[in-house]
Amino acid sequence: MLGVQVARQLKAAGLIWKPRLGDRFAVPDRDLDDEVFVLSNMTIQVHDRPEGRIIGFNGTTEWALDDVDLDETIWLPREDQLRELLGATFRELRRENDRYRVRVELLGESHTFTAPTAELGYAAALLHLLAAATA
Questions:
Q1: I need a labelling partner for 7 at 20 to 30 A (CA). Which of 13, 33, 106, 118 fits?
Q2: Would you say the pTM of this structure is higher than 0.85?
Q3: Which domain of life is it from (predicted)?
């Protein structure tokens, strides 16, 4: 999963989040830095009961936040979302030993980004594209 630090870099580079169900996000600087939240219509939890495990559909949780401004959150895009954001520039994802290589093409020039995870490779490529867009 993409960490808050890289997600902050993407946000600072100009990545705009248009929230959708299933999106992951963090609320940093509120003693919630280690918590990952998911946009959902309802809270669903697994409960262990003497008769077995059940899935409970809950309307609210007792510790729920009232609300948080979107600007106070950091989107943690998934691998598929990062790849989608690369759009037509994306050419290839390749695993080589314990590293991932992401190749994009921008204005006829190929650029390769190597990282320990596919998400970090996609994020590096996206940071490059965002920088090129503002240059």
A1: 106
A2: no
A3: Bacteria
